[in-house]
Amino acid sequence: MDEETLNLSVRKFLKKVGITAQREIETSVREAIESGRLTGDETLNARVTLTVDGVDLSHEIDGELALK
Question: Which residues in the chain belong to E strands, given as ranges?
C-alpha cells in the first residue's frame, strides 16, 4: 500500500463529500423555509453514515445544524 496515494484519495473523496453535502443541506433547508415546514430558527439534527466496501467500515457521525 502506498500511504501517500491512500491519503490523497481519502482527501479527494472527503472534499467531494463535504462540497456535495453542504450544497444539498443548504438547498433542502431553503426549500423547507420557503414551503413553511421550517421557520428558520430551528436546530436540526443531522447524521451521516460512512461505509467503505472491502473493509467492513460502517460509522455514524451525528451533529446539529443551527439555523439561527
Answer: 43-52, 57-66
Does the global pTM surpass 0.85?
A: yes
| Parent domain of 54 | 3-66
In contact, 58 and 51? CB cutoff 8 Å: yes
Q: Which amino acid is at 1?
A: M
Query: In the chain, how many domains are there?
Result: 1
Q: What is the pLDDT of residues 49-66, one digit of tens each?
A: 999 999 999 999 999 999
Residue type, 6: L
**Which tens digit of pLDDT belongs to each residue from 7-27?**
999 999 999 999 999 999 999
Which one, of 59, 31, 25, lies nearest residue 45 by Cα?
Answer: 25
